[in-house]
Design a protein that fits this description.
This protein is mainly alpha-helical. Helices cover about 65% and strands about 5% of the residues. The relative contact order is 0.14.
Length: about 170
């Protein structure tokens, strides 16, 4: 509920609704262009952040990969997916900081801010598309059942001592 309200508030700020209008010099010819580019850039970044956040949550819900030979394919897919999600999250953080720096130019150099935000919007669109493509990298095959052997089955299995070659039973 709090996240939904915060997201709605962020949307109002991005659009400049009501008392959330951004400062600027209305006499500057670059201000209307900046007023159009800035909300679009922020909305695109927000969409990318939502997609990355969704994939981050799904990554946490995936079963942990095993180093068992039967699970190598799943482990490789899981590791590639984890790496892609982390890379996208890092790119989002970097892009967010660059957008904040461009927004700081709003009052001192609206033309420069608009130019930077246009370039950053293109980067945000690429990041949004890449974040949406993360779902295709998510490992779909469940881990083999052999990964989850029950404790009782493994505890009562006969074991062979490596040094003596004798078989023994263990109930630990």
């Amino acid at each position: 509920m709090v996240a939904k309200n915060a997201d709605a508030l962020g949307d109002h700020v991005n659009r400049g609704d009501g008392g959330f209008a951004r400062p600027g010099d209305p006499a500057n010819p670059a201000t209307p262009e900046l007023d159009a580019v800035e909300p679009a850039t922020l909305a695109t970044l927000d969409e990318a952040g939502d997609a990355i956040g969704t994939e981050s949550e799904r990554l946490k819900a995936l079963p942990t990969p095993s180093s068992a030979p039967a699970g190598r394919a799943y482990k490789a897919a899981h590791d590639a997916y984890r790496k892609a999600v982390k890379q996208a999250a890092d790119q989002r953080t970097t892009l967010s900081r660059e957008i904040e720096r461009a927004q700081e130019l709003r009052t001192s150099d609206p033309g420069g801010a608009a130019t930077r935000l246009k370039a950053l919007r293109e980067r945000a669109e690429k990041l949004r598309d890449a974040a949406r493509a993360l779902a295709a990298l998510r490992p779909q095959a469940p881990p083999p059942a052999s990964w989850f052997a029950s404790a009782a089955a493994s505890a009562s299995a006969p074991r062979t001592c490596a040094g003596t070659g004798r078989r023994s039973w263990s109930w630990t």
